[in-house]
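User: Hi! Is it possible to get a structure for several chains at once, not just one? Here's what I have:
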Amino acid sequence: MSLAFAGIGETRVIIDFVGKDDVKRHLQDLGFVKGESVKLISENDSGFIIMAKGVRVAINRNLATKIMVA
Amino acid sequence: MKVKIALAGNPNSGKTTMFNDLTGSSQYVGNWPGVTVEKKEGALRGQKDVIIQDLPGIYSLSPYTLEEVVARNYLITEKPDAIINIVDASNIERNLYLSTQLMELGIPVIMALNMIDVVRKNGDTIDIPKLKEQLGCEIVEASALKGIGTKEVAQKAVELAKSKVSAVPKHTFSTEVEDALAKIEGLVKGKTDSINERWLAIKLLEQDEKVMEGLPLDGETLKAVKDIVQECESKLKDDGESIITNERYSYISKVMKQAVHKKSGTKRSATDKIDAIVTNRWLALPIFAVVMFLVYYISISTVGSMATDWVNDVLFGDIIPPAVGNFLDYIGTAAWLNSLILDGIIAGVGAVLGFLPQMMVLFLCLAFLEDCGYMARIAFIMDRIFRKFGLSGKSFIPILIGTGCGVPGIMATRTIENEHDRRMTIITTTFIPCSAKLPIIALIAGALFPGSSLVAPSAYFVGMAAIIVSGILLKKTKMFSGDPSPFIMELPSYHLPGIKSILIHVWDRSKAFIKKASTIILLATVLVWFLSSFNWKLQMVDTEYSILAAIGKVIAPIFIPLGWGNWKAAVATVTGLIAKENVVGTFGILYGFADVAEDGGEFWKNLQGEFTQLSAYSFLIFNLLCAPCFAAMGAVRSEMSSGKWTAFSIGYQTVFAYIVATIVFQMGSFISGNGFHVGTAVGLLLIILLVYLLVRKPSEVKEKKAKAAV
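Assistant: Yes, the chains can be modeled jointly so their relative placement is included. Here is the combined structure:
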């Protein structure tokens, strides 16, 4: 399922990213790599705050739907 | 011998603080050649022959943002003598990712483990000898904010640079990847002038286009490399780039397990608690509104305006002009020279410098918001709204800074990765009234709308509306169509900013303004003074008969549809291009007042004679929205790095301002009962045009092209 459907406070493992290559690269540089556990900290109208590699990263909703997690 | 040391690190790793601490006041700020990323360098304190080069904050050496491209080009082509790698020790895992890349460059590297005090406070421990062993570089614990360890880092970096011992990366990848890298290395060995084959092999495995472009490899070798890459990719079921990224992170997690011990605790951090409130779905916007109100209350209404009043009324009112006047009388200068100095230069430059205190307080507030971490949250919570009209949340920061001054506002667009978004933000940022436009607002409000407190807020409303309308309208053109870039932004932990770093921030921005006042504005005031004091025969005359009046009379008819075709208004608009605050001063000169207050109170009566409320408001709108001042145009030019885009930007703003002001005047005069005539029809047509541009289907040419290319 996509990260956008995970619950607040849940920790999920990234399994894939479906989107443009340059965005994928940037996400990877920020620690959103396959196999990484990320935690959904909060959600608002703009998108989500996600903890990856100990750093908070804000991403918009549309991008979150492209990050596949298990 | 000069030694060059580069500072490299993630954004928010405390790099700027470290740079300030190392160089003190000996900084030189410029631009990187060809691009508009700020380039900062300075001599190491007490060692003139050591130059510290500040690189932009980056997450990786792969080029996603302009900053990354710049940093990477510098490191590869200019080869500094050593790199100080600044690592935020409290976020060590993600920060080490860049470190592994820096270690591969073949340049001596020393690591500054910054914010070590935070780590200690949290009760975590980092095993430095172990970390050294695993990464292969010297490590110094530091806290730039508290001035701990920075001298030691610099000293060791200088020694390292002089010894010329290149970094030897200790990190290795999995067997499959190492095999592929060894094969690639064997293939290209001796075929390029690169002295660093491992780095090259990694780049080839990643199939990095920018690096491959510049390689002197023949087609056969490239093909062989490609085969190796494909074999490795199919074995690991991923693309070359992702494979390397994963390998780096898995090495880092091994290092983390051995060298970093985090005190276990699932307690929610203070940052998460604050975020739960300030980025909350319902509370985020009201809190933001309160914060903004406070910022403006402090900088515009209270502290800032008190300081500005003092500069205007006392410093440039009671102190400087009489003193200079007496001095000029004493040495007995000619009347025209007295006039130039007192009426031209002191009155003009003084009026501009009067804003400085207000701007400094505003910049102080904005620097605080930026350094404490709230600015990144503002971009995030505004993203949903801005996305609706084609911009991103990151566009909001430039606009916010633009309320102080458009120049740093335009410069702040650099953090926007997407080129379309960046260009659109540059074009629209100056629509929001900057502090130099406030006197125009005060003049119109005071002279034509006495007692009304709606004019000033309406100016911001007009600015916001112009940004929204332009965003929607431009996004539908071929030039800007396409998917907006996704919003990805690190939210740093909240912290109390250091006073020193905030003051340096404020000083950097104020300096630009003072420089403008002492150069462009000085020249402009002399020019306006000259044009308004002489006629074509170079005789000193009253303004009515001056060159300026003649020019004004020629261009004034252009503004007849806007309702203010008189030459004084036309001239004031033109001098407003030099600096917006000139508009008030120019009216002052033209109405025969040498020295006027900021809001031009002396000639409100004259203005009431020449303007109606409607034409005055149209004048205000045009001056708020049209091309910004020369300094801002210069900033647009350097940020766009293209003459064509600069011309488009300024042309768009001016045409847009002309259309909006025409509509307001023509419709306003129809509604107020002046009958239907040609102007009304033109106004109606313009409204229809604007509405069409807003609701038409977006142009999709670019998208199709992009798809075809894939």
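The CA atoms of residues 84 and 543 of chain B lie 61 Å apart. Residues 702-710 of chain B have pLDDT under 50 and may be disordered.

User: Great, thank you!
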